[in-house]
Amino acid sequence: YHQFSFSHLRHGLYAQHLENWLKFFPKEQLLILNAKDLYYNLDNILAETFDFLNLPKYQIESRIEKNKIDKVRPIGGHERNIYKNIDSKTRTLFNVQNYPEMKSETRKFLQDFFRPHNEKLFEMIGRRFDWNDEK
């Protein structure tokens, strides 16, 4: 299970990446989101993003319609492209059915490796994600 190169692991050291961003931008100018929320709470994330950018409230529900199988689809225009791109990216991100189940020792190695880095990030941003939770 130690077939990871550090370059693969380095991508997940978000606290380190955030420290680099904070050299150039004040914390108040950065909006930190959990990608998983794009999948489960897209409307809330969009509302939070609009609010962060001081954009007018956008009535997302009034711009979309539900089809017969209860999937939400944008009516058209730019909204269609935005939703299509987010939808395809989140589908790709969360489509784990093509992968074998992770070995428990590999999961433990990754959790142990990332835990202190994740805790540092959570401290920096003042909120927690469920990344350190046992699965």
TrEMBL record:
The keyword Glycoprotein applies. Keywords: Glycoprotein, Transferase. Gene3D superfamilies: P-loop containing nucleotide triphosphate hydrolases (3.40.50.300). InterPro entries: NST/OST, P-loop_NTPase, Sulfotransferase_dom. Residues 7-115 form the Sulfotransferase domain. GO terms for molecular function: sulfotransferase activity. This is Sulfotransferase domain-containing protein.
